[in-house]
Design a protein that fits this description.
elongated; 257 residues; 11 helices; mainly alpha
């Protein structure tokens, strides 16, 4: 090891090249922000899917995110702050990751030729991650901006109205596809890159990890599509009363009593 370091020092001295830890630091930051975003999106999908258990359940989840169980009343500004924090992580991740994108059409064609020649599944996954990341940058930014500026309009009716009456269903469908593929591929590649689950037989564990990746993708994709369908159904039923806020069953019963 000392001999290698000595040779490196000699080359640096001869050619005037200085070592830089910046690429390694950026790579670490990209991995960290990617991990945070992927885990957040899984949690977000579970919260969003609360609509599958009924409007009241989704209403309670939305109030939980606004801090009502903790403070006694709702503070939508908490959702705004969360969206701003997420947007900051999102932009940081995208800004670092873009340095690895093909910088020109020539680089892109060279990579595509290399991909076809290699026929390597992990190489193909990297290309799909680039493509879905590009889609997410635009669609995700729109979604985050909407949440930042409409944090008080999250609920069974408000969210459904946005999807149906405000014609956001196509955007959310495309965003769902991009997020689920990008996130699961990203976590798989992170595991391989940092050797989190290598164990005693890295090759065999990589195969198991890839199967698990596709299982996770299928699970969250199904969950997302079912949730989107539920919001669309509610939005269509509520279209004539667009803009009306949802009143939970407990409050209606309290008024009747």
């Amino acid at each position: 090891m000392e001999v290698v370091q000595t040779r490196v020092d000699e080359v640096e001295s001869k050619f005037g090249v200085k070592k830089s830890r910046t690429p390694a630091k950026l790579d670490y930051l990209q991995s960290a922000t990617g991990l945070m975003l992927a885990l957040f999106m899984w949690a977000h999908m579970i919260l969003v899917s609360s609509i599958l258990f009924g409007k009241d359940t989704m209403y309670e989840v939305s109030k939980l995110m606004e801090g009502k169980p903790f403070f006694g009343e709702s503070y939508p500004i908490l959702v705004t702050f969360t969206a701003i924090l997420l947007a900051t992580i999102f932009i940081t991740h995208a800004a670092i990751a873009i340095r690895k994108f093909p910088g020109s059409f020539k680089q892109y064609t060279l990579y595509r030729a290399h991909m076809k020649r290699m026929k390597h599944s992990d190489t193909n996954l990297w290309f799909y991650q680039i493509f879905t990341g590009f889609v997410m940058f635009f669609l995700g930014s729109i979604h985050l901006f909407i949440i930042m500026t409409n944090s008080a309009d999250i609920g069974p009716y408000a969210s459904s109205d946005r999807i149906v009456s405000e014609w956001m269903a196509p955007l959310y469908l495309l965003l769902l596809l991009a997020v689920e593929f990008h996130g699961s591929i990203g976590l798989y590649r992170l595991s391989i890159k940092w050797g989190w689950f290598d164990g005693k037989d890295p090759k065999a564990n990589r195969k198991k990890l890839k199967k698990f990746k596709w299982a996770i993708t299928a699970f969250f994709m199904t969950l997302g599509l079912l949730s989107l369908a539920a919001y669309i159904k509610i939005g269509l039923e509520h279209k004539a009363n667009y803009g009306e806020k949802y009143i939970p069953t407990s409050e209606i019963q309290g008024v009747i009593k």
